[in-house]
Design goal:
This is Endocuticle structural protein SgAbd-6. Pfam families: Chitin_bind_4. Keywords: Cuticle, Pyrrolidone carboxylic acid. InterPro entries: CHIT_BIND_RR_consensus (IPR031311), Cuticle_Struct_Prot (IPR050468), Insect_cuticle (IPR000618). Component of the abdominal endocuticle. The chain is mostly beta strands. It has one domain (about 10-80). Helices cover about 0% and strands about 65% of the residues. It contains no helices and 6 strands. It has strands spanning about 10-15, 20-25, 30-40, 50-60, 65-70, 75-80. The chain has a 6-stranded antiparallel beta sheet with strand order 1-2-3-4-5-6, with no helix packed on it. A hairpin with a 4-residue loop joins β2 (about 20-25) and β3. The chain is flat. It starts with 7 loop residues before the first strand and ends with a strand. About 0% of the residues are buried.
Length: about 80
């Protein structure tokens, strides 16, 4: 591993093939991502993918930072936390 390069320490992926999935990973530089998706109103004209998740990382100041988000028919809606 070269300086500044991260490696994946953990990874999980589960897709039920019916419109739901989860995935996540953790890297050696402290990045963590978790995400869940589901197809809402499946089979209708209002069908839409809804994704919810969290991204957490270690800042240069040593503090953890996070973004919780929803992405759906209303767009990407992030909420930043520290």
């Amino acid at each position: 591993q070269k300086p500044g390069e991260a490696v994946i320490l953990e990874q999980s992926i589960d897709n039920d093939g019916l419109g739901q999935y989860t995935f996540g990973f953790k890297t050696s530089d402290g990045l963590i991502r978790q995400e869940q998706g589901v197809v809402k109103n499946q089979g209708t004209e209002n069908e839409a993918l809804e994704v919810r998740g969290t991204i957490t990382w270690l800042g240069a100041d040593g503090k953890d930072y996070s973004i919780n988000f929803v992405a759906d028919e209303n767009g990407f809606q992030p909420q930043y936390t520290q």
